[in-house]
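Hey Z.,

So I finally got round to the tryptophan thing we talked about over coffee. Here's the setup:
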Amino acid sequence: MIEARGQWSGRLGFVLAASGSAIGLGNLWKFPYITWQNGGGAFVLVYLLSILLIGLPIMMAEIMIGRRTGKSTIPALQEMGGKGWGLVGVMGVLAGFVILGYYSVIAGWAISSFWECLNWSISGYRAPDSGAFGAFVSNGPLQLALSGAFSLATIGVVWLGVSKGIERVTKILMPMLFVIMLYFLVTVLTMDGASRALSFMFTPNFADLPPLGILEAVGHSFFTLSLGMGLMITYGSYLKKDMSVTKVSGLVVGLDTLVALVATMIMFTIIFSFPGVEEQVGKSTVGMLFITLPNLFYTGMPGGAILGPLFFVLVGFAALTSTISLLEVMVAYFIDGRGMKRSSATMLSGAGTYVSTVFCALSLGAVGWMSSFELFPGKQGVLNTLDHLASNWMLPLGGLFITIFVGWKLDKRLSLEELKLTDDGGQPSIYFKLWRIVIRYVAPAAIIAVIIAVITGKDFS
Ligand code: TRP
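And the result:
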């Protein structure tokens, strides 16, 4: 028997699932950190421009391809563009495999930070010694268990399918995530560091922006919006025909951006409120979220005993709704492209990815050669190598191909039909014309600039 193809029950279902994919470690961990590194206000402004000028138009393009064909990434591109374009889909599915492999490891840390905080809340805070995090990441069995638990949760949700699994889970987790964030925002707004955090984030001073910060902003737009690997093609393929691609794209992009800004505001306020913390932050990329922050909840933060564990619930939820989307891209391929049943497709993709997770989990000190292995200069170990490969190469390249495909190969009328951006007389509206210009010229030019920057050695991971 052929299983019925999944579908979102309605607009809310799609928007929550797609924003669940978009909102993840990229928003809570990476964005605050790179904003910090790139000097604040001016970087935020460039990032917002890049979300609007590159992210949003590509989001519309991906969702449109999926909705039009009703197929997942590889078959959708094959159907619209022929075998050659199908290869862009193949790269996308591989990117999903690569990202999910290491993402699950970092997501697993949310579980252990949650336990750590819960313990402190119950039996009192004990400052960890300075080598604690290093010992934690190089504990192989523990890393395998944490990432394994996270992978199992991911597999369980995807196994249940589009509406019964992904939609149902995101409909519960995402509203909780929004409420928790709001609670955090209200709390930190009463703290001393709030006004400094606001002015750091929203007063652009271009002298503070390193020249390549612009390209970093573009690169991050892909990662944070889950673009460049055809994920939104797959999610768009479950979207009903009567829904506006433009509106749902706007909503997803808006929510993702809002969460990134609020998360950054929360973290910077906390950091600015404690003297001396600022100096520590710059030292480690993962540090801000997993090393610095947990301690601050217990050293003078109002209501910290509740906020501590709650914060890592937030991180875990955000990560889970992203990992399920990454796994779904692979699963959908095996279902649509290979005629497999959802259950076998999920087992195969989940087990396959966990193999790569094992390598990543052991590459932070547990196993020597996995940790010291260096393909890209300065990126040691499997985890860092895969992150670099996906964020700096696969996603920008995939995004570039999508812009070329939609801007130059697809019939203009087809885009107009799907996006429904017409004026009263049924002619292409000004928004459609702008979208075309961006997707044909502006976005590809910006992505090519990113790729050139990567080739000449700039790192976006
Ligand atoms: N967007 C997610 C984040 O910000 C990560 C993610 C999920 C992703 N699915 C993706 C990135 C697909 C690129 C492509 O954490």
